[in-house]
Please model this.
Amino acid sequence: MKESRLWFWHLISGLALILLLGVHTVIQHFDSILTWLGFIPQAAWQSGGHLVGSLNFQHAVLPRMQSVSMTAVYLLLVVFGLFHGLYGLRSMIYELKFSAKAKQVVGVIILSIGIAAAVYGVYTVLAGHLNPPLGG
Amino acid sequence: MAAKDNDLGIRGWVYAGRYSLQRYAYTLQRITGLGIILYLLIHLYVTAQKNAGEAAWAGAMDAVQPLHIGEYFLFLAIIIHACNGFRLVWAEFGLGLGRPIKNVYPYQTCLDRNRIFFYAILAVVFVLAVVGTADFFNLIRVL
Ligand code: HEM
Ligand code: HEM
Ligand code: HEM
Model:
């Protein structure tokens, strides 16, 4: 793909990530506020040892795995997050004085990491949704 | 005349030359960006353990427990990168920079005009940081 087009998608993915990572960050980091607002059950704080609030398996993680909208958010977050982050990493490396050949090698390595991580991430999210553990 | 060698090499990642405040925001943008992408790669593996059930999830969470404070710094990195990134996307699409002006003394650059946006972003980061800090260290008890 043309470089300018990739860069354009870097910006678009950045905008998308505000929403996607915004949702994720609010869920993970403002969980006492979310409980107060009623989005997370009180029970998430009463069981599960130190894994309370948003990290509680039964009352927070499992329900999110079963939710269609959260599954969609995570699928998009995997893809946009990896593209945006790895393209950013590649841009920084390409600023250095490497030969065209070396840059090509770097490009292929980063692309491979991206594809492998995307396959793994998409699989993780889908498997969790379609086949939740403990019969959920 | 030979062209001036402007290439800073790897030093260019952190040193901006004689540029303004915003150029250092850009440096911060890169440091935080790198931190987040590194985290994401590890994160995908750690959170995947949820699919193996509650015991595996607890095991994975216990294993990363010593790094828990790192999550707080990651949170700060995310809000800085997201807010400043929002400002950069606007600038890169050429929005909010005003009309081009003649270059007469006292010189004014687009960066001067963008500075208000920059301070607004700083304010948003500050508010989010306060709320996030309170939540992370359990300083507020709303329950
Ligand atoms: C600091 C804060 C973070 C915490 C505490 C956190 C926590 C979690 C948890 C507990 C899950 C499991 C799924 C769930 O509970 O709903 C998860 C999944 C996920 N997170 Fe994060 N996360 C953080 C930051 C990030 C960042 C910065 C990114 C991306 C750039 C990200 C991307 C993802 C993705 C794509 C998934 C889905 C993969 C899966 O379900 O295994 N997270 N996160
Ligand atoms: C939350 C929303 C986000 C927004 C609005 C955003 C926006 C931006 C913008 C505008 C740039 C500068 C690009 C340029 O000027 O060419 C950038 C750079 C970067 N971002 Fe993000 N980003 C976000 C999230 C992320 C995430 C989740 C990651 C990692 C997974 C990440 C990794 C990077 C990296 C490594 C760079 C450096 C690239 C460079 O300087 O050329 N960003 N981001
Ligand atoms: C051919 C013309 C231009 C190109 C190719 C261009 C390209 C870019 C790029 C790639 C960035 C990303 C940040 C960076 O790399 O440091 C940027 C940032 C920016 N540009 Fe331009 N630009 C152009 C003209 C202008 C003009 C005419 C203005 C002002 C009216 C302007 C104002 C800005 C501002 C305020 C930023 C944000 C910088 C920061 O806060 O870090 N640009 N531009």
